[in-house]
What does this fold into?
Amino acid sequence: MGYLDSVRRELAGLWSGGKGKSLIAIAVAWGLLVGTRMIYPPLLPYFSDDFGLTLTTAGLLVSIIWLAQSIGQVPGGILADRYSERKILTASVSVTVVGLAVVVSAPSALVLFAATAVVGFGLSQYPVARMTMLSDLYPSRLGRALGMTMASADLGQTVLPPIASVLAVVVGWQFGLGYVLPFLCLSVVGLWWTLPKSEPEDDGTAESNASIREVVAELCSPTIAIMGVMLFLFLFVWQTFSAFYPTYLVDEKGLSPPVAGALFGLFFAAGVVVKPLAGAAYDRVGIRRSLPVVLGGSIVGLAVLPFVDGVAALVGVTVLISTMLGNGAITQSYLTEIISNDVQGTGLGLVRSSTGMLSAGGPVVFGAVAQRGYFDEGYVMLAVVVAVVTALTLLLPDG
It folds into this structure.
């Protein structure tokens, strides 16, 4: 009974003061955006067939969406400091809709790649504005609020890619990607009508409270430098793993595309549970005691993946690897809290953009390695990288 009372109190705290509607709108839109991004990996074989892509160029397609998303977070962060998050978040989803509409009608590989970049740029405007708004709405429950929005993202990644896989087989890959467009359009309306409608800087005329020199000085602190390295390494692993896991399961483990898509969905389904728990753990015990526990399972899972066969065993390994999904609820909450409010949006944009751009080459590198016959060895190396991230956690103050 005590546990249920605690859950009720937490939910009441997240819902109180009319904040719950905003939280739901932000979470639903984020789930749709991230789920849409994760439709790309299961569709890579279809892109390859229709546009003549190799494993390397298919990896480049995924890298482009990540790279565009990373580059756009710098202007996204600056805009989040100066304008209403309501405007930034609705614009983000709207641009993504335009990009997807072009992707599904792309007549050539060039148009496919260019439209994918537009999708990535649209996605880029959402993360920082989401974090700064939640920071304002939930100053004492940021980990929990971020954990819930990230769980929504995993729900989207669990549900949308398998549906896309089935539609791609039955109707065509265009329907596998295009079916999300109506839902994204509805989320634009939901964001516009539920988020706070005005803020002091809403007209865009206010200047930043801090100079560029002050922003750079704050971001050059040892703690943020360590966080930057950790984020780069983790994003390298995350982007690489998510880009090629369905292809790996089909090519190396002999699974059918629908079964591989279901396992890929299971990976994110586990995150629906992991992320809120990770966020709550961060709020209670800090980053040094929560993050190593979250990453431990993924180290084991990635290391044993090449030596496991059969659907049942792969289910267990997939769940183990999925524990790394709790990383974001912890590291993003920590990063948001250690950057001062005056430069929060700009600072988050710069850190997330720089680390994302550096790590965006991961799928291309991994695709080249896999194309040379070292798929299995690549996953063992990813386990080593996650172990390095875990060790770096011990250098951080709990803040």
